[in-house]
Amino acid sequence: MERLASYVSGAWVSGSGKAATLVNPTTEEPIAEASTEGIDFARALSHARDVGGPRLRALSFAQRGELLLALSRVIHANRDALIDVAIQNGGNTRSDAKFDIDGASGTLAYYAELGKQLGDARFLVDGEGEKLGRSPRFFGYHVLVPRAGVAVHINAFNFPAWGLGEKLACALLAGMPVVSKPATSTALLASRIARLFVEANILPEGAFSFIAGAPGDMLDHLGGQDVLAFTGSADTGARLRAMPAVVHGSVRLNIEADSLNTAVLGPDVASGSDTYRMFLREVSRDITQKAGQKCTAIRRILVPSAIEAEIKDELVALLRDVKVGDPALEGVTVGPLATAAQLRDIRAGIQKLSAEASIVLGDGAFQRVGAQDGKGYFVPPTLLHCKDPDAARDVHQHEVFGPCATIVPYDGSSARATDLVRRGGGMLVGSVYSDDRAFVTDMIFGLSPYHGRLYFGSEKIADQTPGPGTVLPQSVHGGPGRAGGGEELGGRRGLAFYSHRAAIQGARPILEAALDLKSS
Ligand code: NAP
């Protein structure tokens, strides 16, 4: 069986000893294994810092952007082969696989263009300068310079391509070398991409390293110039926060974690209207796409009590004929969950929610198209209905990371909607479907502090958006509270995490010349 290798200190290395097994979640057959035993992580980090860092920092934004464009093209040129790997190891349908892989190449291409716009500079001047003394000559600026360490990226199992690409894009453009570690269970796709990157010989030596398997003692070797960007469960995030390197060494940490995202249907939305159809389409897409294994997927569906029965019927009609099964087959919309552990967690999670909400779809036996009897980690689209959201706790707080969402009624007022949504305790994305400006205003003020992103569906854009579940590089991604308190992407903002802001004080003409600024 193939043993996935890590790329560290400029060479491919296979770990020794006992390995973790990667399986095909449709058939449960083992397809690869990974181990990092014996890898010298301290040396790997030093190599990235000392060899990759200076080489990247010597380049301008435009030159770093050219590297990103070349990486994006490599992914795109190998798209079909990568889609096959995502089907095999991730249980993705073709459409799910494209979502992940095109997300990676698209985000790299977006940051490539940003690099071009930032041009010949190697660091950013942050805001306007200010006079610091009585004389206008004593002046101050702030600069954002690349941090002199290494950026370690740890990703979740659900987006092996996009997770790698989006973090890599920001770090490399900012001028930091990267060590990227995907989740082991679905690492085959990330491993193929890493190999393509290395073989294409695009990046300067030391700018990119790749870990296939457990992180070993790697994080113990992080220091004050390094950063750690993590995506995964809140439990693992909490463990990372408590690491001595973070607590005592000021390692900069970004956490992207769980989220109980909500879609709110406004009281103004009439049955059958464009906004109404958009709402139903986007809710059902979030339940089925990637078998619901999206951190941005809608988990709670808030609908005015007056039409809760109607919405329930509409969603059941949209979801009941969805084909679940072998994701390689045409017509199958929902593939398996990625791992046996996910299957256990999702079944237990649905059980938990069913104590507070009734299951209206997804209970009992279901057909698995093209799957072997008793094999595969399948869960059908599951819809629950919570009659009494005030008595419920898990509906608001327990993320079931699968094809599952709960309808929650509210009285149609913005105050009640805000109160219920906030019970999720901090979220990545909230969506509101309404054409009523007063309702939208109330939602912006009431919900923004609890979200990284708010998405407003309305008639005017009904057929022009990919829905709230798609993370776009122009807007920030992350969320407060339960969602981890992190922030990624957001165009230029995404570079800040990998940069150090320093105040620069001195004689204005000297600073202007050094920073290549023109006096106004
Ligand atoms: P996980 O179990 O926390 O694992 C995430 C990553 O952390 C994996 O690469 C894992 O490596 C690594 N890891 C685990 N323990 C570690 C430790 N002690 N030290 C260092 N690294 C460690 O989460 P998951 O099951 O892969 O992901 C599912 C969760 O991620 C969901 O709750 C979902 O909401 C969240 N998620 C959030 C976002 C977001 O952007 N906010 C995006 C996607 C997913 P191994 O695989 O080798 O154990």
UniProtKB/TrEMBL annotation:
Which Pfam families does the protein's record reference? Answer: Aldedh
Q: Which Gene3D superfamilies match?
A: Aldehyde Dehydrogenase, Chain A, domain 1, Aldehyde Dehydrogenase, Chain A, domain 2
Q: What is the name listed in the Swiss-Prot or TrEMBL entry for this protein? A: 3,4-dehydroadipyl-CoA semialdehyde dehydrogenase
- Among its keywords, does the record have Phosphoprotein? no
Enumerate the UniProt keywords alphabetically. Answer: Oxidoreductase
Segments forming domain Aldehyde dehydrogenase: 12-443
Q: Cross-referenced InterPro entries, in alphabetical order? A: Ald_DH/histidinol_DH, Ald_DH_C, Ald_DH_N, Aldehyde_DH_dom
- Annotated GO MF terms: oxidoreductase activity, acting on the aldehyde or oxo group of donors, NAD or NADP as acceptor
Source organism phylogeny? Bacteria, Pseudomonadati, Myxococcota, Polyangia, Polyangiales
Top-rank taxon:
Bacteria
